[in-house]
Amino acid sequence: MIVGTQKPIAEIKAMVKPYRRLLVLGCGTCVKTCFAGGEDEVLALSSALRLAFRVDGEEIDVKGQTVERQCEDEFIQEAAGGVAHCDAVLSLACGAGVQAVARRYPNTPVLPGVNTTFIGVREGQGLFTEECIGCGNCVLAEFGGVCPITRCAKRLLNGPCGGSRNGKCEVNPDTDCAWQLIIDRLKLLGQLDALRTYRSPRDWRPGIAGGPRRLVREDHII
Amino acid sequence: MPAAPAPGITVLHCINALTDVAAFALHSTENARIHAVKLPCSGMTRDIFLLKAFEVGADAVVLFTCPEGACRHLDGNIRAWKRVERVRGILDEIGLSSRRLSAFSIAPGDQEAVSLALRKVVSELAVLGPNPAARACPEITSGLTSATTS
Q1: Does a structural domain hold residue B145?
Q2: What is the ipTM of this complex?
Q3: Per the structure, how many domains does chain B have?
Q4: Alpha-helical segments (H) within A105-174
Q5: In terms of CB atoms within 10 Å, which end of chain B has fewer, N or C?
Q6: What's the predicted TM-score (pTM) here?
Q7: Is A2-118 in CATH node 3.40.630.30?
Q8: Contact B92/A at CB under 8 A
Q9: Which chain B residue has the Cα nearest residue A125?
Q10: pLDDT digit string (tens) for A102-145?
């Protein structure tokens, strides 16, 4: 899932200040799960914005709506009625959702209310960790299902670096050393010998270094 | 010159912590206008419930929960306290003051503790004054009066 955090209210307030009628548009998929932009967050942020402007002696008409996914046009179209009656949309989706909404409604300013942070997993209630950077050429099979590119602070493919202490990363002691995890998992799988293979410098072009990516599935295009 | 109206306080309470709203009666008539909202468990508290209370004119919002370890639903009270802390942060961020929102643990039936807590909130409001967000929107402020329980 894509993980994000809501922007500070002060930043959002400054962003929406020029507009009198605002639609706060939530997304019911990834950002709902990480408590950044689902229905609950739409309601709370809408209320907080109304209060914030009233404290300054101003009134703003804030309405809220949440669609299932802001990264798919079929769902975005459900917001057409709300968008038609607002001066701007404050999207609580990830960056992809914000841009998809802006593409669907080109005459209405679409503002981001969330900082998109990473592709991750929900480790527990309220705890999310980054697990994938979308490098475009997955190597998890070689590393026991632990990604050294995402989870090693030094992105080492020929690790470990030697700096970890008690299984924790020297860059951030709150983070597990990815290479400790890789070695533990490969031991468990009886595949530790896989680490004898030298990994040559990586071709980063399948990742974002090669420019914006595009996926075409001809078998699904009519 | 007419006297200033008594402050409006929205009280959300777990029905297990406080089943009898008679505890509010004295304050409703003398010190404050109390709008009581029953919850099956304080863990059902949502950010929007707390914020909406301020929107419709409450000068302060109070949450009464069961004491830690005494929640019938295990950790509803702990969740409620965390949500209160989060919304207190929002109130400070928007200039409404986190001191307008408070939570108290109440042993079942301890009406004296309820009175004590409400007295504390009323005295805090004497310093803070009315909710500035409600003052800017008088038609909403009047809505509180009609919703007030006594």
Answers
A1: no
A2: 0.88
A3: 1
A4: 148-151
A5: N
A6: 0.90
A7: no
A8: no
A9: B79
A10: 999 999 999 999 999 999 999 999 999 999 999 999 999 999 99
